[in-house]
Amino acid sequence: MKVTTYIAQFLKNKGVDTVFELQGGMITRILDELNKQGGFSIVSMHHEQAAAFAADAFGRITNKPGIALATSGPGATNLITGIGNCYFDSVPAIFITGQVNLNEQKGEKATRQIGFQETDIVSIVRPITKAAYAVNEANQIPHILEEAWSIAIEGRPGPVLIDIPMNLQKDEITDIENRNRTGNIAQSTDKTQLFLNELTHTLKIYKKPLVLAGHGIRLANETDRFIEFIEKYDLPVVCSLHGLDAIPFNHPKRIGFIGTYGNRWANYAMGTCDLLLVLGSRLDLRQTGSDIDSFSKDKQIFHVDIDNAELNNRFSGCNTLNAGLTDFFNLANLSKNSVRNNKEWVSEIEQKKQQLTDTAELKNIKGINPNIFIHLLSQYSKQAKAFITDVGNNQMWTAQSLELTASQRFLSSGGMGAMGYSLPAAIGASFALGKAPVVCIAGDGGFQINIQELQTIRRNNLPVKIVIINNHCLGMIRQFQDAYFDSCYQSTVNGYSTPDFEKVANAYEIEATTISTPEDMHNGLIRLWEKPDQPFLLNVSLDIHTNVYPKMMFGNSITNMEFENNIK
375 — phi, psi (to 5°)? Predict the structure, then answer.
């Protein structure tokens, strides 16, 4: 069987029906075969980075590897940010790159390059992939594809890259042996039971328990059992950025979003709880603050994560369980008698919330309050199957105030923090959801990075509802410049500009409108959803000095957060 035929049939057998790509000479044979085989949505993007982000989102929604293809040289290197995004955010993906013919590769020679666009992409991406393969003979393909698929999804998911020379793509595979991997090794039941016994004992003693819900809950497909668990044991929940869709916004056990820009009351709960159960989250710097001693003082931390390297990483002395959450929930039959009544603790957190809600943080706001807008956007967007944010102020306002339902997903770039993520990721998410409506939320800066993908949306007639939170600057860095650089706005306001986004959208035959006052919000959101099956762009114009509050104060504890007009 020809290599390209085997690749197409392998993907079909794994249930892959969508691939993202930007055509180039060294992948022409593969794309031609996918087209001949039929049954694939071959989504042509306008930049390889965008193809990688789309594959990332597809992988997040389906929990199967998203697939992106690129040609050699600049095509392959343009994938790198998206590959890193998958790696840091634990997203299963397979990236297939074309490479120059074997006889055009420099090998061990000192020369920089022999073949046109020859680039050793495998060496470049090894630090940000779970595996990277340079294929050098056709018979390697069956084993490499099977291994790559397994590696991408097993344990802590992540990206794999396969680099295939152009001449090998037309060769025949003569050894098609089934070399399926066995998959994950089962976790020790005894270790899990010991961990749960200790948790049971601690729940009897401690008065302020709290659960931190991370992305690992979604990765394990365990949202239902997670909800059952926290309801059964009366445990309040805070969410990491990627854990926002682990629990519905209106669930009575949900407290809020934590972190550098977390809800003030949620950070209070995180900082003052005496028992913290972390499920599938990393406890990184932006979640806990840099003051480790203050955070861990008088606090017992129980941490469950499938990646052993994340356990007792920044914090030592935690009670840890290196296991998948499926294994945890399989044995999590704690005694109801072990759980205290947490009403007093929850009431304490609620009092903190009432002192300063998310919509009251910006008291002196001019024009549209972004937190109020996000609440309204949520209420108008019940038809949306997913919300996808970019990176920056738009991301934090959304995380603070988005009202997700049980059936809605939330996607964002976390560890990489890649501006330009939301628009192509919305494309990937919509395809993964059967071309269902999704909401793309972006800042004006991030939106311009992959603005060309408006054409992909229009060409595929995707119902992507684009919301640009337009503060006419690079707002998060501009706020940082206010705090630490005497309001010197180099490259955030000075040397930066935005186009007329309505005109840009119209050029791509996408309807659009702009709102700039609180009175405009309802009409703008009605326009956004007037045609649910069509794309639309809503440009939300904010005052240039609209900041994000609260914000964790640099070098301080998680509970020490800035107020408006309290800039250091």
Answer: -60, -45
